[in-house]
Amino acid sequence: MDWWMSGLVLPPYLELGMQSLSSVLWTLLLLFLWHCYRMGSDLPMPGHTHSGKSGSRRSMMSRGGSCGGAGARSRSDQIMETEEDEERGQNYLTPVLSHALFPAQASAEAKKLYAALQEYAKRYSWVGMGRIHKGLREQVRLNDHSAIQKPHLFFLPDVPSVPFFPRDAHRHDIEVLEANYPTILKEFRAVYQRGTDAKQGWTSLTSKGQSVFPLYSSGICVAGNCRSCPCTYRILLSLRTFISSNSLGSAGFWLLGPGSTLGSSYGPTNARLRCHLGLQTPSQCELVVGGEPQCWSEGHCLLVDDSFLHTVAHKGPPDAAPRVIFSVDLWHPNVAAAERQALDFMFSPDI
Question: Which residues face 251 on adjacent strands?
């Protein structure tokens, strides 16, 4: 390095500085060569299938293992296995789709609903399905819920629940029904005067004195009955939150004779509300939901969460008129649009 300065006459202080500079340059050159060597040793071997980042990390783990003994090698193997698992399952939904997550002691109905949810997610998306997924997994503990609310089919968690909801929860649909009260009442009287037997489209329930004239039954339109009540049918379809596409939804005229009582029971789900429009409400008729009593009023609606324990009674004299309501199942206002679409798929009626 000093040959090019041999012909020059330099002051002593400059000659000393040039020697120091030469030493610094030699040191930098050696450091650069050492760096190149280290970088070359970290390159993957020919035929290695993993990425450069993964290969570099694994070579570092192997060096750590050679210095740290058997314990370090075991830790290195665990980290490498974790990396391989991450590479095989980049999709974060893989655990959700695993059947192992669903409780083995779940009922056959809960397993069927979970399979339907998985099928829905494969076709569309898991976005917004958190509460439904949680509810299905916790369905096996449904009997642990308080006795006052226990839907027997599907419980949607984290949904605000009270026995009776205010009108503002479904103001539009309530106003539509109440505004058309005279039309609905007129069509009910027309079908009632023809008789309440099965040939006229009525269904007698197990309880004495209770009959139903359904327009929709478990998500299926009863075409003959809808033709008998065309105006009521059109009003029904104009409602924004009517459950018309799955087996959780029904609509029709409900008749309860004097002296009849419907014992304590629970509805199938808390994902819906039942809207009762009073058509004919004699005195001494009462609805008790979750321990709270209410009475119907002609031309006005009640919003009921029938997943609470409820009873219905007509305590009028034998010659009293039957109690008649127009009952419509509406979505719970806290159920999002994506959840409604998924529940429509899961509870699709068997036609």
Answer: 216, 328
